[in-house]
Recover the amino acids of this structure.
């Protein structure tokens, strides 16, 4: 009984929080500063932007900007970091960055499907039914993502993006 109430309460909170989102970030899971940095860098494309100018535009200190950019890079988000003629750190967007979020979402959905599949069925019919529904939703979502990725591979979109990105860095 307690599990049923807890699940219902969680679902109601999720629905409410999803409906109350006023600002949407295309980069789920990032803090606000990281998202602002990636937005500015992407909007500047194909131009580079200096780290100093970037920090000034979003009103943070240079050291904080460096730390956030390093965090972005470590998390596997494609961004090009280099130095200009004045030896200042510059950032340039990668056109692969928006696609990297789709790839990460696919990987996340596949991992979640495995976790849900591994959940043990217990004696509570209501909870077992909830698990089956969630599993089916994730299973179908992963299937759709796989179909889309197969289509993109057959159209050679990924190959074209990678060759375009190679030209940028040369």
């Amino acid at each position: 009984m307690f599990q049923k109430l807890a699940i219902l309460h969680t679902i109601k909170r999720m629905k409410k929080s999803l409906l109350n989102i006023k600002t949407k970030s295309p980069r789920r899971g990032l803090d606000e500063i990281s998202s602002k940095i990636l937005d500015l860098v992407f909007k500047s494309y194909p131009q580079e932007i200096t780290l100093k100018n970037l920090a000034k535009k979003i009103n943070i200190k240079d050291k904080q900007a460096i730390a956030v950019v390093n965090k972005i890079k470590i998390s596997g988000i494609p961004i090009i970091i280099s130095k200009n003629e004045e030896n200042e750190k510059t950032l340039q967007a990668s056109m692969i960055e928006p696609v990297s979020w789709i790839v990460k979402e696919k990987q996340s959905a596949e991992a979640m499907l495995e976790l849900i599949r591994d959940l043990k069925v217990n004696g509570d019919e209501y909870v077992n039914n909830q698990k089956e529904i969630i599993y089916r939703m994730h299973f179908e979502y992963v299937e759709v993502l796989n179909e889309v990725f197969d289509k993109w591979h057959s159209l050679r979109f990924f190959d074209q993006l990678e060759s375009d990105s190679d030209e940028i860095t040369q």
